[in-house]
Amino acid sequence: MPAQTRISPRCSMHVLVTGGAGFIGSHLCALLLGRGDQVICVDDLSTGSKSNIERLTENPAFEFHEADVSAGLEIEGTVSAVVHLASPASPPDYHRLPLETLAVGSRGTENALRLAHHHGARFVLASTSEIYGDPLMHPQREEYWGNVNPIGPRSVYDEAKRFAEAITVAYRRTLGVDTGVIRIFNTYGPRMRPHDGRVVTSFITQALNGDPLTIYGDGSQTRSFCYVDDLIRGIVAMIDSSEPGPVNLGNPNERTVAELAELVSAVTGTRSPIEFHPLPTDDPTRRRPDITKALTTLDWSPRVDIEDGLRRTVEWFRSRPEEVAAAAAAVAGGQCDNLFPEYQEQL
Ligand code: NAD
Ligand code: UDP
Predict the structure, then answer these.
(1) Separation of alpha carbons 139 and 121, rounded Å
(2) From ligand 2's centre to the CA of 149, what distance in Å?
(3) What is the DSSP letter of 107?
(4) Ligand 1 within 6 A of 112 CB?
(5) Which atom of ligand 2 is nearest to the CA of 202?
(6) Is 157 an annotated catalytic residue?
(7) What are the helix (H) ranges across the chain?
(8) Is 16 helix (H, G, I), strand (E, B) or coil?
(9) Does the C-beta of 91 come closer than 6 Å to ligand 1?
(10) Which atom of ligand 1 is nearest to the CA of 49?
(11) Considering the entire predicted model, what is its pTM?
C-alpha cells in the first residue's frame, strides 16, 4: 500500500478538493479560485488529468499534490473545508478499478473525514444518484432508501458511496464534524474524457467521428442530465452552508437515452446511424431527481437547458479533434456487452 502523504501548504487557509484534477473537481477548483479561496487539489490521476488543471497551476493560490487519498493524508496549516470528490465515476472506470473504487469510497472517505475533524473543517461528500440503484420511487426524493444489488457489477461503486454516506453521517453524529452530503445526478460538460464511456461523451465522440451512436438496450431507459456549471454552483452552496443533507443536485429534465441520441445528432449535425447493443447488467431503468430540498435549503436550481449544455460541450470536443479521433475505438460500442460473464452465469 502507498505511504501516507504529508502536505505543507504555502498558504494558511485552504479548501481541500480530493479528486480535483477530474472532470467535476477541476471546474470546482476553478470556481473556488475565482472567488478568492486558496485551493489544495489532491488527486492520484487514476481517472483525472494534469491537463484539466494546467491553467490553474499558474495561480499562486492553487496547489496540486499527486497522492492517493485512500493511503492517508495530513495537511499542515488551516483547512476550512474538505470536498471529497475522489472516486472513479464512469461505469467503465469503476469496472476497471473495482478495488480502488471500494477503497476510496471507504478508507479514502474516512481519511478525508479525519482530516476535516482534525482541522474543524466543513466536509462535503460527493455522493451519487447511484445510491438509489434501480429506483422504485420516481422521481427520487432524499427520503428514498434505494434499490441496490449489493453483489452486482455496479455494487463496487454504489455500495462504496452508500458506505461513504454512512460514515459521513457517523462522523457528524459521533464526533460533531460539520458534514454535508450531496447526491449528484448525471452531469456533463467540457473536460469529460472523450473515451470515458459515459453516454454523453460516447455519443458526442461517435457523432463527431461519424461512427454509429451505440444505444444500450432499446434506449427507453432515462437519465436527467445536468450541465457542469449548474452542478458546481450547487456544490459551492453546499460548502458555504451548514446543511447536513443529503441533498439531490441534478437537472430534473428527464430524457430517454434514445432522445439523448437524437439531441446529440441534432446539435452535431451528424448523419451517424444508431446501433443497438445489449443493456449492461443492473442498468437503472430511470432517474430523475426531486430537487425541492436543494431549492429550499440551498436556494439552488439548474439554469442551463440540455440543448445549450450540449452545444457548449460539443464545441469543447470539436476543439480537440485529435483526442476525439483517438477515442473512437474505446467508444466503438459493445464495451459493456461481455462484462462479468462469470456473474451472469451465477444468475
Ligand atoms: P472523474 O473520474 O473525472 O474524477 C474523479 C477524480 O478522482 C479523478 O481526477 C481521479 O484521478 C481522482 N481519484 C480517484 N481515486 C482517487 C484516489 N484514491 N485518490 C486521489 N484521487 C483519486 O469523475 P467526475 O465525474 O469528476 O466525478 C467526481 C465525483 O463526483 C466522484 O466522486 C463521483 O462519484 C461523483 N459523481 C459524479 C457524477 C457525474 O455525472 N459526473 C454523478 C454522480 C456522482
Ligand atoms: N449508454 C448507452 N450507450 C453508451 C453508453 C451508455 O446507451 O454508449 C446508456 C447506459 O446503458 C445507461 C445510460 O446510457 O443506461 C447512462 O449511462 P452512463 O454510463 O452515462 O451513466 P450511468 O449509467 O452511470 O447513469
Answers:
(1) 33
(2) 18
(3) I
(4) no
(5) 8
(6) yes
(7) 23-34, 91-96, 98-103, 109-119, 155-175, 199-209, 228-240, 257-268, 292-298, 306-318, 321-326, 341-346
(8) strand
(9) no
(10) 9
(11) 0.95
Confidence at residue 8, expressed as pLDDT on a 0 to 100 scale: 64
Query: What grid cell was written down for 183?
Result: 447526491
Tracing cell 460541450 back to the chain, one arrives at 313
Segment 92-141, tens digit of pLDDT: 999 999 999 999 999 999 999 999 999 999 999 999 999 999 999 999 99
Q: Any idea of the CA torsion for 126, 14, 33, 44, to the nearest 10 degrees?
A: -50
Q: Which amino acid is at 138?
A: H
104 lines ligand 1 (CB under 6 A): yes
Tens digits of residue pLDDT in 265-299: 999 999 999 999 999 999 999 999 999 999 999 99
Specify the residue with its C-alpha closest to ligand 1, atom 14.
Answer: 87
Mutate to test the pocket of ligand 1, among 24, 95, 193 (most ligand atoms within 8 A of CB): 24
Q: Which atom of ligand 1 is nearest to the CA of 186?
A: 40
Mean per-residue pLDDT, 69-82: 94
Annotated active-site residue in 94, 132, 144, 157: 157
Length of the chain, in residues: 347
What domains lie within the chain, and their CATH numbers? Answer: 14-332 (3.40.50.720)
pLDDT at position 178 over 70:
yes
pLDDT exceeds cutoff 70 at 344: no
The pLDDT score that the predictor gives to residue 331 is 84
Taking Cα atoms as reference points, which of 106, 153, 104, 108 lies closest to residue 133? 153
Task: Pick the residue whose CA is nearest to atom 19 on ligand 2.
Answer: 198
DSSP 131: G
